[in-house]
Amino acid sequence: GYDRTGNLTHSTDQRTGTTQFEYDKLGRITQAGNELFAFDPAHNILDIPTEKVKPYPTPSPAGEGRGEGKTAAPLSDNRSIIPDNRLKTYNGTTYYYDELGNLIHRELADGEVQNYFYDLHDQLVKAEIFKKDGTKETWSYTYDALGRRIGKGRLKNEEVSETSFPHDLGGNDLENHTRFVWDGSHLLQEIHPDGRYTYIYTDPDSYEPLAQVRDWTTEDGESRQQTHYFHCDQIGIPREMTDKDGNLLWFGNYTGWGRLKEETKVTDAAYQPFRLQNQYADRETGLHYNFFRYYEPDAGRFVNQDPIGLMGGENLYWFAPNVQIWVDFLGLAKGAANPVVKAAIEVGKRAHKNYSLTLGGGYNFESSFRTKSGKLYRFDAIDYKNCLVRELKPDTKSGRCKGNKQLNNYVRILNSEGPDSCKGKWKGILDLYKP
């Protein structure tokens, strides 16, 4: 079921029962089943206690478990705004970044440690994984000229990485080597040492998978082929796989931010790598490859900043308010999967396009302002002569709430750090359009 704004309020599954969802006034998810979430004003997820947290564990017999056994963060009292939007701790995991804002070190709640290395285009090319049992794995990732990932594999010999990593590694240097073939921005095939998987989507413009064609060769040299079908939920996440006769092969259950919490393989032949739309799960790291960036499903964030900057949103690590109605096909900017939300977005786009005609001259539109601390703000309209800053929002309860909150913040910042001619004189005006 959905509320009037298009947010999913509950879903019912014959295996897991009914899951309830709750949201704040900005549409950010605050509860998914027994998972609880809170955010700072810049949409960073917070590692804070909440009264609804229960000490019981969430079972995860075969998921991509990074910190199972917790329903929410083990929770500090740190309620401060996160500097530079770089998350430091969440749910027992600690994060470290380089000067460019790329996540380079992650200490997981279960004791595993991961190091990440990037090329000059901020693409992840190497991951060092130190297991809690003392073993180490090093994984290589390669890309084509368009930024599409075309290969990954685990190094056979750790010493290789010191001399030839990553670009001149050949297949002989890697085990579990997987190659990827693309049709534009759609993953068409992945080629493994033991076979090939070809993917078919619901339509050419969709990233929701419909079918998987598996080709392999038996020990006797015979060529075999099987077709498996995906059964996806309202957001395009595969929940089940069946064969051509409808027999169940695989089913899975997910957390509130799209991590596979548990899965069941009815047959060993079942292989399901997809998560949110156009996200491919790397089980070695727990990250999801999302075309231009990698997504961390434990905290619902990307591991580095948005390549398109503020065009993708004010928080360069943010995925979306929730993953129940929002998608991001390329790791650049969120979009709505729900038709109600899609229609509302189109109305909003038209309203913003006509905004300049409505207000007339004297205003700068979509104007950016950088504070002394380096934080960027983007105003819908600002008049530096008359000391006016305006925000355009839909005439809804959440739209008015968000608009007034933004305007109060804009006025505070401009009175403090804006032009001297308007110090203490700024006035915020909220303009509304019919959604």
From TrEMBL:
<dbReference type="InterPro" id="IPR006530">
    <property type="entry name" value="YD"/>
</dbReference>
<dbReference type="InterPro" id="IPR028902">
    <property type="entry name" value="Tox-REase-9_dom"/>
</dbReference>
<feature type="region of interest" description="Disordered">
    <location>
        <begin position="50"/>
        <end position="80"/>
    </location>
</feature>
<feature type="domain" description="RHS protein conserved region">
    <location>
        <begin position="228"/>
        <end position="263"/>
    </location>
</feature>
<protein>
    <submittedName>
        <fullName>RHS protein</fullName>
    </submittedName>
</protein>
<dbReference type="InterPro" id="IPR022385">
    <property type="entry name" value="Rhs_assc_core"/>
</dbReference>
<dbReference type="InterPro" id="IPR031325">
    <property type="entry name" value="RHS_repeat"/>
</dbReference>
<dbReference type="Pfam" id="PF15650">
    <property type="entry name" value="Tox-REase-9"/>
</dbReference>
<dbReference type="Pfam" id="PF03527">
    <property type="entry name" value="RHS"/>
</dbReference>
<dbReference type="InterPro" id="IPR001826">
    <property type="entry name" value="RHS"/>
</dbReference>
<dbReference type="Pfam" id="PF05593">
    <property type="entry name" value="RHS_repeat"/>
</dbReference>
<feature type="domain" description="Tox-REase-9">
    <location>
        <begin position="341"/>
        <end position="433"/>
    </location>
</feature>
<dbReference type="InterPro" id="IPR050708">
    <property type="entry name" value="T6SS_VgrG/RHS"/>
</dbReference>
